[in-house]
Amino acid sequence: MIRAIEPGQTNPRPFWAILTLVLLIVLLVVVRMVDWDAGSGVGTVPVTVTVLKEGTPIPNVSITLLPMHHHDASLRPAAGTTDSDGRCQVTTLRFDDGAIPGPYSVGLEKIPEWTLKFNDPSLLNVDPGAPPSGSDLREPDPTRMYSMARREEAKPQPEALPAKLVDPSKSGLTVQVEVDSPNNFTFDVR
Q: Which pTM does this prediction carry?
């Protein structure tokens, strides 16, 4: 049943709507201002990983840090990709923020050189469902790109790391990230 507001009586709905809006804004501000420090259980510390092959830095290696204790909800995986010096800062929550302290198993995989061709900004606007572009070789053709990818993937990758290193749970590589430690880890693959 709908009640009419009597003359001289105020409508309480705008008050409650404004109060709800103000409380929602306050809640969002408080959540946004929470600092994810070590005391909150999800803080990260800087972690640097260097990958070498017989003493020579290896660029473009994808690094995965997988928490060893899966029941520990505070640990999260971290990852990164090595630069030309074979080094990277790992990322957990924000770019290059490091990893949450704890034990990790490590996975390493060399990114094949041919896949880096797809980092070309001109290929970002390619519609994979588009028909072949014709004879203009300057325009990327999705069919030609996929054919090239399948062809290159079938070739042996001379710079590939041993397959056992890809899966962190089988690689045998581990690190212990500590709060008061430099956390600089080097892996020399032979």
A: 0.62
